[in-house]
Amino acid sequence: MAVAMKKPSTWAHYVALLKKDLSQELHTKDMLTSMGLYALLVLVVYGAALAQAGSELDILQMAGGLLWAVILFTSLLGLNRSFSHEKEQGCLEGILLVPMDRSVIFLAKATANLIFLLVVTAVTVPLFFFLFLGQVGAAPTWPLMIAPLLAGTVGIAGVGTMLSTITMNTRGKDVMLAVLFIPLLFPLLWACVSATTCVMCAPEGFMDTFVTSMALSAGYDIVMILISWVLYDFVVSA
């Protein structure tokens, strides 16, 4: 007597895809190594560029923008590689043959990209503080920058996963991803830079600006990730 096999749940599909990405990265360490090395090189370039700036330069006012520039371009490098294994080994075609909601692929890949980006950010931020703010120091409210860091990385991972899927099979995908990625991320980048600068400098009445910037970044994350989730079935099947 044949026994009917139980169909795996959506959660089981999500966990399986996420485990695949995490175990593959832990085995090769391609993305984490390249992103970490790139972030370190950008910090070295910052150091060389600002070495002759003199004491009149207010590095604290620029710190938020400089930090987010590192995070943004480092994430761009990682997103370019996020589907490299699936494309080179033909895994994506096999995954698409599985009878499941295609948006699960988006959620699993975006979660993996978020984890990788958070790991690199957790290393980059202390290095940035040590190299550029060690003598200047930041305001006592600087721990609040965790909020814009989380909001920014969530948005970058979600929107970036969608765009990396769109550009995966295009000619010159590296350039095409950057062309789409940076303008689309500008509202989130602006809000996160504003919130980060506020808590680093803590000017009078900074909490109003901080709350407004965080509300903008949270709204951006919700809207853009929902749009990416809804459209992903069409994008990955195209």
UniProtKB/TrEMBL annotation:
<keyword id="KW-0812">Transmembrane</keyword>
<feature type="transmembrane region" description="Helical">
    <location>
        <begin position="35"/>
        <end position="53"/>
    </location>
</feature>
<keyword id="KW-0813">Transport</keyword>
<keyword id="KW-1133">Transmembrane helix</keyword>
<dbReference type="GO" id="GO:0017004">
    <property type="term" value="P:cytochrome complex assembly"/>
</dbReference>
<dbReference type="GO" id="GO:0005886">
    <property type="term" value="C:plasma membrane"/>
</dbReference>
<dbReference type="Pfam" id="PF03379">
    <property type="entry name" value="CcmB"/>
</dbReference>
<feature type="transmembrane region" description="Helical">
    <location>
        <begin position="59"/>
        <end position="79"/>
    </location>
</feature>
<feature type="transmembrane region" description="Helical">
    <location>
        <begin position="145"/>
        <end position="163"/>
    </location>
</feature>
<feature type="transmembrane region" description="Helical">
    <location>
        <begin position="175"/>
        <end position="197"/>
    </location>
</feature>
<feature type="transmembrane region" description="Helical">
    <location>
        <begin position="110"/>
        <end position="133"/>
    </location>
</feature>
<feature type="transmembrane region" description="Helical">
    <location>
        <begin position="209"/>
        <end position="232"/>
    </location>
</feature>
<dbReference type="InterPro" id="IPR003544">
    <property type="entry name" value="Cyt_c_biogenesis_CcmB"/>
</dbReference>
<dbReference type="GO" id="GO:1903607">
    <property type="term" value="P:cytochrome c biosynthetic process"/>
</dbReference>
<comment type="similarity">
    <text>Belongs to the CcmB/CycW/HelB family.</text>
</comment>
<keyword id="KW-0472">Membrane</keyword>
<protein>
    <submittedName>
        <fullName>Heme exporter protein CcmB</fullName>
    </submittedName>
</protein>
<dbReference type="GO" id="GO:0015232">
    <property type="term" value="F:heme transmembrane transporter activity"/>
</dbReference>
<keyword id="KW-0201">Cytochrome c-type biogenesis</keyword>
